[in-house]
Batch of 2 targets.
Target 1
Amino acid sequence: MAAPSLAVDLAPGNPRELVLANPVIAASGCFGYGLEYAGVMDVQRLGAFVSKGITPKPRSGNRMPRITETPAGMLNAIGLQNPGIRGFVKKYPKIWDAWKVPAIVNISAESVEDYAMMARILDELPGVAGIEVNISCPNIAAGGYCFGWDAAMSADVTRAVRAATTLPMMVKLSPGAVDVVSVALAVEDAGADAVSMINTLVGMAIDVRTRRPVLANATGGLSGPAVKPIALRMVYQVAAAVQIPVVGMGGIMGLDDALEFFFAGASAVQVGTAVFAQPGMLIRLIDDLGEWLSSQGVGSVQEIVGAALPAGLPSRRAATEADVEIDFAAAVAAG
Amino acid sequence: MVELDPILDVDLVGAGGVVVRAREFDSRILAVEPVMGDSALLTLSLPPGMAGSLRAGQFVDVLCRVEGSYDPLLRRPYSIFRADSRTETMQLLVRPYGRGSAWLASRPVDTILDVLGPLGNAFHIHPRSRNLLMVAGGVGAAPLVMLTDHALADGRNVTYLMGAADADALLPTSYLPSDVEYGVATDDGSKGHRGFVTDLVPEYLRWADQVFACGPEPMFRSLRSVSSAHRLGGKPRIQVSVERTMACGLGACLGCVVETKHGMQTSCVQGPIYDMDEVIW
């Protein structure tokens, strides 16, 4: 039997497409700009990697401590330390342009206009394969309310970025949204090529000796195995509702975790926190996935996507007339 | 070939200009010696050729959990205590004060560990420095032992000062080369000076061409205050090994930064060794 196909297009509706050789992506914030890991692993073998979050202006980040370990997880409050879009553009894309692995740039901003401004700069930049829009940022115009918690605000950002670039665009959903499905549907309608989920969950830790928060920022984003059940549930709900690809992440430490996300409806996965502990696990995961598919006699990883969804993936259901009759909402509610 | 970040490139150049790439490798515990009270000195196997390239001040990140467990999740950084290129081994000093280090300090001989390294920059001995003063606090003794080995091999003079809670927690004299002057301080006065190790520092500042320190942050603050009146024009220079909670060890997560006069720097790649006067304390 031929080796199973691991390839996936994360922007099937976009002429510029985002075809990955395999569905394993290094997550934003956990992989620097790719260069940091080039010495310890074969970065070129990844499906893709997502850069550290870039902002309109340079940021020096939060005060220390910025990270702390929690049971089977970690909290981080780095504060988006980065050289700003202009500093970033000068340094990294030209290096990536010589790389085989697609580089996706994660962008964060505090106004719709700033998101669009960064998207315009990235639009025709050699070395940039796509954009991941981090909407878990405070919207200054809305008194600091997080864009990603609100469907209309998330759609505003997506629409502005879509108008500014034809690059493949993945919108990274916030688990803090009251109704993550409505946010996903809104950004799909506003032109997102894919959604990635979930961003970290806001949490905190307190030092019992000092009686103060451990992190200088008091709160931070929780990631790691501790968040996996929540991430999986959200991927399952969103994948049942949208037609665009869902990229799942949250606590993936190895093959079984990744399979759960594929079964829940993720077309690809991102791995973040696990890479801190074991950089080699990314390549092992790609190899393990290929071997597992072979052992199961599955020809393509895409065949297993959504296997756990009661009514399968909406994008596939729409392909056959009989399936169109299924009431998606009822199916999800039943699930 | 991948073009490396200039910052990384510099720090990947090891002794003799050999490019050292950090890597994830399996390492076997060859020996465990109880030392300094509740601490353990582990002797670990290294991949062929690595021992000779290790520089004093560098560290390794050890995964402190068994296969299948996710707790504790992150690796733990340990400065290299000593490296031996003849036996292809290194030693790590582990004090069991957290979940990860308690796990590591209690591993039996023959345990296979997942190690990432070597990581970080190194202490820099100026070519003209003759007299070196080491200032160690607790397990901060580790990188200064390796530095002492290297300095003596180059024919320099070393005074090694160490502070600990009590006599039992001090590094035994037998672990230091015999031609090192060893001064100690204990909190309870059970051996040497009663008080802080930094109390001993001023009398050596005229003698020392360079000072190297590793210990808890309060020791650095004390070192700054006791040395300020005795240093002229920033001489002797003082290098410190800082400790930060870190995640990746490779400069990617920006969780372990140190605020310096040159901006935020990653203590795992651009550190952990800093000129004390460059750090914003």
Target 2
Amino acid sequence: MRISSGRRITPILGAELDKFRTLPLIRLTLTVTFILNIALTAAFTSVSLQETTGTQNTLNTGLASMGYLQAGFIILGILATCSEYTGGQIRTTLTAMPWRGVQISAKMLALAMITIPAAFIMAASGVLYAFIMLGDTALMTEIGTVIQTLAGATGYLTLTALLSAAVGAILRRTTPAVVVLLGYYFIVSPLTRDWLPGYLPDKAGYYMYTPPSVDAGNILTPMEGTGVAMLWTLSLMAAAILLYRRRDA
Amino acid sequence: MRAFQAELSKLFSLPGIWLAVLIGAVAPAVIAALDAIAEKEAIIAGVSTRLPEMGYSGLGLGVQGVIILGVLAVSSEYVAESSETGGGQQMTTSLTAVSSRLHFLLAKAGAVTVISILLSMVAILTTVSATHLILGEYTPAFEGSRLAGAVCYWTFTALLAFGMTLLTRNGIIPLAVLIINSSVVSFSVLLHKVTKLAFYLPDRAGFEMFMFTSGSAHTPGTGSLFESYLTPLTGGLVMFAWVAVLLMLAAIVFRRRDVAA
């Protein structure tokens, strides 16, 4: 059956969005991440209020929980691809949509469509909370910088989710993917900060949402950071698509 | 006893457990080695302040192996087979064979405990050798009581992971929470700045068993993460209390709940 790719993509995208909408674990992950993020921001804000020395920066305090927030998006990405492999759903998926490259690309697109608003809401709510709580004591930041930083944070979280989805598609099993990614982001990366170059996805991505004025030691500008992080995500996604097309499901 | 042997055999036939054993044996040694490399310069320069922590930092931060062990021991039972082969769970078979849920739970917890004790001994062996290899003559003496504390910490962590997974019946949440919490940016690091109660969180209290020497007693209450707050024994008891409460809760829930996830 020949169907032009233009007419194919919309129903496939709809199907993938439907899957995300109905997966209970996706909903649970988003809700828990949101609540935890607010709780952690509250903790960071109260720490920031206790520190009397120096001026606080609303933006830094609001985004201080980013390190933890990314965990939610890593899990989201892994769930998006690995949920296909629990219970053989993948065979139904591929029977309905035998165009593998198109199908997985649509899945990634659908994932991005969910993570972009979710990431923005979470990052913005953190900053908003810090803004309300710190009030006048905090250093005022220009609205332009705020928007730029929030866009960077949203982009970083989305790229992280896509990267995790690609790794999940390569490994095809939830637990190893969770162990590998969380192990890298939370154990390996912080411990080897001094040894590894700054071109790894999480470190490059860090510059996406770090206001350049904070410290002069920034190795990468936000744009460079975005480029490097995007390169990592795209190459892993390419590897995932290639393997997905060639491998037995 | 046969249930216990069955649980051991189940665990050893899981590929994920071998991954856990590998991580458990290697991760603390690598972390300790990295830490020791960084510290060696300070020692040579004569400004070292963290000498008594050498090696133990690896054992404290490298617990991912036993976390995976504890989580997988339970979550593997709840993995649903593909719908084409009936969509069953191993748990149904296990509870058919060992119908007393309490016996089943005791056997499984016993198997997890035994494996994590053995694994922590292997980890201590690799960590101590890695530290010796790098620090050479500067290596501090490893005291038996602190190493025993590390074994307890690892076993309790495995049992915490076990209990949490029993409650969630899904490996992702406990894995995520515990792996993030075992990192240098753990929740207790953040929370101890907010409230002193954070010192009673299981991982922080567990650290007291081996991270600090009696000689390095700092002024209490300054609130730094790497300062002793409780005595090793109290720390151990606090962590044990967490484990006991969590396991009891998990046992009650497990006894009353339907098998299906």
